[in-house]
Every structure is written in structure tokens, then in C-alpha cells.
Input
Amino acid sequence: MLAVLLCAAAALLAGGWFGGYRASKGQALAATAVREMAPPGSGERILIFAPHPDDEVLGCGGLIQQAIARGAEVHVALMTNGDGSELSLVFGERELSRKPSAFIDLGRARQQETISALETLGLPANHIYFLGYPNNGLVALWRTDHWLRSSPYRSSYTRASSSPYERSLTLDAPYSGEQVLADVTALLEQLTPTSVYVTHPQDIHPDHWATCAFVSYGLATLAARDPAPWLRQTQLYGYLIHWPRFPSPRRLKPQLPLMPPNDIVAPRNAWLQLPLSTKETQRKLAAVRIYRSQLPNLDRLLLDFVRANELFAALAPREVQRKDAILWVDEDSRRRNLHGADIIELLLQVQRDLAVSAELTRSPKKLGKGAYVSLDLRSWDAAGQPAIASVTIARGADPKGVVVADGECRSLPVAVRSLGSGRVTITGLTVPAGARQHQHWFVTCWGSVRDRVTDPAVVARLVSDPTVPD
Output
């Protein structure tokens, strides 16, 4: 039975769940939007965050080789050990019938595959960090339900609520967003990277965009405290793995370039390509093939990323200041369909009374049954600790709001006004106490179909107008 499921999953993957397709007229890749990236040099310190074992090689295998060859210092951090089968995503996020111990064994095997693959690229094992968080669970940790250590998430695969792995950055790390942020910021402070690479914020795999959200918020958290000189110079780059019709064509073509899909390209989203030599491409292919736990069932996905270059997006924060409000438009993303509703634009206003109004606009239809949109606004309290205000809007249901601040959760009264055709205005979302002194806000927005979070987070760092009185 398992063999049948594996074959069916492979067919689905090859057919397009992860983006497989044959390029048709009007879907050509936009080569003109890509600029060449300078290779890393001596003295640079590079930190790569990957959601699962193999993502670091798929997105950055050539970059790692070039950086090491030129004298740069490279470190890799794995957010999860990939202990939940990727096939569960194909089958509606239902887990396959396996014992928790089998998933833990899979996590250990993927850890070892990562060490071997990165050693093939020249990276020593002591530059690899396993954080040990739950596969397909990072979004749950990002949200307020499991943000605090006192309310940890339980993996549906391993049945663990803390890391069961001996090889973890924090032993027995509780499955909470608070702990993830602590590990991310600790790594950043320890390694003081000159550049950070993370999965792209529009990557449609929930673990991937949640990884970007944690890393971006970690950098913003350090900046909100007493920022060290190294932090002001740190550059953030994104690499894309999961997106419809990407890469193209869907097969092993090491002589072809990897180019961004048209529907995620925009002028302000600066795409950069790093050319690879034939030798570097061959070594990357050898590293990819070490992930035997994922092959051959996912080879149509993994081998597609062995190309003549690697692709990165410069993730500079989007900051727009206005006299009484902040306007931020998600102009560089193609919002995925939310059961009939496409959320394209977000208008966020920080008013003089420090309440927040948000408008989700340009939705051609009302939210479909089972779909919801979540918005959270994050800042920091007086001590520089995270302060989070979160609201969820669903069709036919009262909005739910939660505040996480000062180490506790409490309900947040909000008001939602429907404007028709899927347009909704949220009012009464109060900024957490202590946030006003920081003048910086960090917002994410996503949606879902039924219980599966499918829409990638919109991650932006917002700066309030200094004329707003304290």
C-alpha cells in the first residue's frame, strides 16, 4: 500500500503540486529582471537558514562552494529535521501510518544526510546547527496559539512537544515561537553574519515562509534593542523553492539557467543570479543525491534546482512614511487564491491614538467558506521583548484577536466592518503597551483554505511617522 501511495505522490509532484509544468506561451521566464550577483569574498560571514534538510543545498549549494573557496566563513542552520513526510502535504496534510519513533528516526537520518551533503560541498560539521523544530509545524509556532513556552505545539508526526533530538542547538527545546526566536537571535548574535540567506517570504510551503518570518523578525528584534555595528551592515537574501511553475523546465537540466517566475517578479524585488561553473554544478548534484531519504520520490523536485546558476532576491525592508499613516502595498507578490478570494493589497494605518486600522482590499469575491485571513502586528515592549497583536477574520464568524506581551496571552477586542466584495476593515486593534517607543512595526498577513495554511506570509518592516506624539 505504501508503495502505491509513494508512486501516486511522485506522479502528483511531477505533475505540478510543487510547480511542475511545461512552459506555455505567455509563461516565459523574465530574464531581463535578473542581475548578476558578485561572488562572496574573503572576510564575509554567511549564515544560511533552511526549513528542512536539502533546502540549503537546493537554494545555496553553489553559493556555499564559492564562499568557502574564496575564504568566506559559512554556517548553516536547519529549522527542522524534516521528520514529517513531505507526502503528507500532497495528501491533504494527513500523516501516513507510521509510529512516532519512525518519524524521529527519519529526522536523525536527514540530519546525517545534511552533514554528508554539506561536507561534499566543503562545509565542516561544526558549522551546521540543527534547531530541531517540528516539520510542517513552524506556522503553528509563529502564530499566537503556540508562541509562549507555556503553550507548546505538539508534532502530529513525532508526538513530541519539545525537540527529541540529541543533536539540537537547544536540548529539549520547547516547540514554541518564543523559543524559535530565542534560538534564531542567539545564532545571529553568536555568528554576526555579514549576509543572511533564508527562504523567500512568498515561498508557498508554510514551513518556508514561516522560516523567513522568524529570521526577519529576529533581525528586527535585535535592531529594536541596542543594535551592534555588524547588524547595520547585514544583508538579507531570499531563495525560492516552492512556487507554481517553478523551476522551468521540470527536469535535470544543469546547462540551463534558473530564472524567477514572471508572477513573482517586480521592479523592487531585486533578483540576483550567481553563475556556477560546471564543476560547482556537478558537486551540487552529488550533494543533492546524498539525500536518499527523499529520492527517488522527490527527484523531480530536487534535481530541478541543479542549474547553471543560483537565484536570490534582495530582501530589503519596505518602509514608507506618511504624515499620519503607513501605506504598504504588496506589489511584488501574486497572492494565491483563497477559496475564491485573492488578497492583493494591505493598507495599514498607525493612527495618532496608536490604534491600528487594516484594510484587505481588491478581493474580487467574498471570502469562501472555510477560508480565513490572519493579520498580526509585532513590535517590542519596553524591555525589547516581542509584543504581538494578532487578529483572524473568517467568513460568517466573529473576528478573533489575541495579544501576546509581557509573557502572557490575553484576548483583544476588535471590530471588523465589511465593505463588500471581500473588502474588510479592522479597527480597534490596539498596539501593545511599550511598542510606541520603538517606532517600528513588523507585519505578516496570510490566509488559509479549511485547516491548511496555504498563502505565504507577507513580511514587511514598517516605520511609523516620527511626528506621531508619544
About this structure: The radius of gyration is 21 Å. Residues 100-120 form the longest helix (21 residues). Confidence is low (pLDDT under 50) at residues 1-29, 88-95, 318-344, 463-470.
